Structures are given as C-alpha cells and as structure tokens.
Amino acid sequence: MAIEFWTWNTPNGRKISVALEEMGLPYTVHPVNISKGEQFNPAFLKISPNNRIPAIVDPDGPGGAPISVFESGAILLYLGMKTGKFWPADLRAQVPVMEWLMWQMGGFGPMPGQVHHFLQVENEADRRYGLERYMKETRRLYGVLDKRLGEAAFVAGDVSVADFAILGWAWRHERHQVDLADFPNVKRWYAAMMARPATARGFEVALS
Ligand SMILES: N[C@@H](CCC(=O)N[C@@H](CS)C(=O)NCC(=O)O)C(=O)O
C-alpha cells in the first residue's frame, strides 16, 4: 500500500521525495500549504506534533500495522531501515551515515535556513547582522562538506540517506547565495546526484 507523504515544496520535503523515488516505494502526495497555516490543522498535528512538514504515514508499518513518522531525519532512517536501501546493514558502515545525517539536521539546514530568513528582513542593520553571521557559518559548512567529498565519492562512501538529506538543502544553494564553483568537490557530488534518474524524479514531482 502507498505511503502517505505529507509535505510541501521545500528542502526538507524534497529529501523525502528523493528517498521515496530512489527506494522505489509507492506514495501519495498530500500537500500541506505552510504559507496558509495548514501545518496547524489538528489532523496534521496528530502525525506531526511540531507543526512542520515532512511527515509520513506508512499503512504497512512494523507488524503490519500503520505507523506515522515526523522529522525528516527520522523518516529517512525509517525508510532506509524498512527497505534496507541506502542504509547499510553493517554497524561500522552505518556510523558515517548517522554522522552525516545528524550533521545535516543540526547545521546544514538550520544555518542556510537562517540565510533565507535574513535575506527577507527589511531593517538594514538586522539584515546585515543576520546575513554576516549565517552566511559565514553556511560557507563554513560547505567547506566541511567539500573536504569530506574530497575523500569520498558520497558522504558515507556509497550513496546513502545522508546524501538525500544534504542534497535537499544543496538544491537551494542559489537561494542562500553559495556558488558551487567555490566548492569543487560539492559541485562534482551535486552533479552526480542530480544525474540519477530517481533523484531527478524526486525533484520534479509536484509537492504543492
Ligand atoms: N527538523 C525538521 C524541520 C522541518 C521544517 O522546518 N519544515 C518547515 C518547511 S521546510 C515547515 O514545515 N515550516 C512550517 C512552520 O514553520 O510552521 C525536519 O527536518 O523535518
């Protein structure tokens, strides 16, 4: 049975459409218009108590009973563990996937997200302060990623759910004003990921 995918056309939403496509899982898109406040609808809050997209409902959850999952990192881990795809079986190989997934969730998302926010601030002093702070940190994170991708083809060696998580935000590099030419290993990885047919479908599917 198809997984219900509650989402909107944002970096955190795209992580999951890419993963669902890459894993070949059937799903139905349920748009949640976050600019109209639909994330506060009681029915959505039941599956996503932090009023954020994305969330999923898997009718074929563990033991054959339905399960809902919120937080994109938890969804990626759930889908990886459920299918055994893009999630290695071996604990040693799982460690870098967890590391880079947590790195994305804790920094490479929250920081460029602040850049997106401060770009819209009208008060010039506030805008300058916020952009200086968060653009600097965003560029530092791109530097960390670039170094890693100079050592490994994908962040955890083979393509994993961690790449899908990071890609969702790298997809918005123009919006947070990062030129990938400054980070050649990220640029190479970005092109390789985007050339994957299932990943491309994950970015093309209508989410809004
Ligand atoms: N840590 C969460 C963040 C999700 C998140 O920030 N979602 C945004 C869209 S990208 C949202 O739903 N915003 C609605 C709101 O702030 O009310 C995750 O990774 O799932």
Structural summary, described in words:
The chain is of the alpha+beta class and 208 residues long. It contains nine helices and four strands. It has a four-stranded mixed beta sheet with strand order 2-1-3-4, with helices on one face. Strand 1, helix 1 and strand 2 (27-31) form a beta-alpha-beta unit. Helix 4 runs parallel beside helix 7. The protein is globular, with a radius of gyration of 17 Å. The two termini are 22 Å apart. Residues 10-12, 34, 39, 51-54, 71-73 line the site of glutathione (GSH). Glutathione binds next to helix 1 and helix 3.
Quick gist of this model?
This protein is an alpha+beta fold and 208 residues long.
Rounded mean pLDDT score: 98
Ligands and ions found:
glutathione
Shape: globular
Overall structural class, as computed from helix and strand content, comes to alpha+beta
Helicity level, as a percent range? Answer: 40-55%
Strand order of the largest sheet: 2-1-3-4
Q: Low-confidence segments, ≥5 residues, pLDDT <50?
A: none
